[in-house]
Amino acid sequence: MQVCVYLLLVLHAADGCSLAENQKTDYITAYTGDSVLLPCSCTDPHTKPESFTWQKYNTRRQTWDVITSESEQYSNRVQLGTAHSPGKLSLLISHLTEEDKGAYICYLTNQQYKYIRLTIKGCSLAENQKTDYITAYTGDSVLLPCSCIDPHAKPESFTWQKYNTRRQTWDVITSESEQYRNRVQMGTAHSPGNLSLLISHLTEEDKGAYSCNLTKKKYKYIRLTIKG
Ligand SMILES: *[C@@H]1O[C@H](CO)[C@@H](O)[C@H](O)[C@H]1NC(C)=O
Ligand SMILES: *[C@@H]1O[C@H](CO)[C@@H](O)[C@H](O)[C@H]1NC(C)=O
């Protein structure tokens, strides 16, 4: 009798979900700042596993850590499956960072699982740590060039800063900065790797040192000279 019940349970579990690409590995490459879908699904989209988890290999601790939207690293960046298709177990990760690279597993049982190897491409800054010298005229516009070598790459974050010679500080430039209100445009929507700064209606005060700043080691300086 007990054997019978056990067999029924096994059959039922097998009925639930037969994993597509079972025990296979997918290799996926994505860019920092983008989203990526790690695919995992039952061959029959109407079936659904009794339970499943996504785990990521922690190379430091050599453990598989279960991913939840409460995980520190993934807080508010992951979305599991889709409500309208219970068989889709895919994991959507948004706002990718370099730390997201590595080995993932979509784990149902000891017999049913799928690996993903995620490679993350970041922004290699063109002319990194170099200085450009640019001259422009009052009233005109000027483009301060700054870009990732790969135009699809997108830095996790970046700022434009201007050196304040009076206070000897680097001030972050925003379109709300008093000096630059409605005169600056940063980056372009169609090319995320283009971080260039366009300043219009130039005034004498705009001369000086600018920095396109991604990280401590990724930056580019511009020396802007203004002629009347
Ligand atoms: C970046 O965008 C600006 C303005 O849209 C354009 O003039 C410039 O050529 C672009 N730079 C690169 C490297 O694509
Ligand atoms: C550039 O940005 C990084 C990270 O945001 C920061 O640590 C660094 O101090 C900045 N560099 C300058 C010159 O402001």
Short descriptors:
mainly beta; 2 domains; transmembrane; disordered N terminus; 228 residues; elongated; Immunoglobulin-like; 7% helix; 1 helix; Ig_sub2; five-stranded mixed β-sheet; cell membrane; binds 2-acetamido-2-deoxy-beta-D-glucopyranose; glycoprotein
Topology overview:
Elements: H1 2-16, E1 25-31, E2 36-38, E3 53-58, E4 63-66, E5 78-80, E6 91-93, E7 102-107, E8 113-121, E9 131-137, E10 142-144, E11 159-164, E12 169-172, E13 184-186, E14 197-199, E15 208-213, E16 219-227
Parallel strand pairs: 1-8, 9-16
Antiparallel strand pairs: 2-6, 3-4, 3-7, 5-6, 7-8, 10-14, 11-12, 11-15, 13-14, 15-16
Bound molecules: 2-acetamido-2-deoxy-beta-D-glucopyranose (NAG) (2 copies).
One 2-acetamido-2-deoxy-beta-D-glucopyranose is lined by residues 143, 147, 188, 191, 194, 196.
Domain Ig-like: 33-117, 139-223
Protein name: Ig-like domain-containing protein
GO biological process, one term: cellular response to lipopolysaccharide
Q: Which structural class best describes the helix and strand composition?
A: mainly beta
The largest sheet has its strands arranged as: 1-8-7-3-4
Number of domains: 2
Which blocks of ≥5 consecutive residues have pLDDT under 50?
Answer: 3-14
What can be said about the biggest beta sheet? 5 strands, mixed
Report the top-level CATH class of the largest domain. Mainly Beta
Mean pLDDT: 88
Number of helices: 1
Query: What CATH architecture of the largest domain would you give?
Result: Sandwich
Radius of gyration: 25 Å
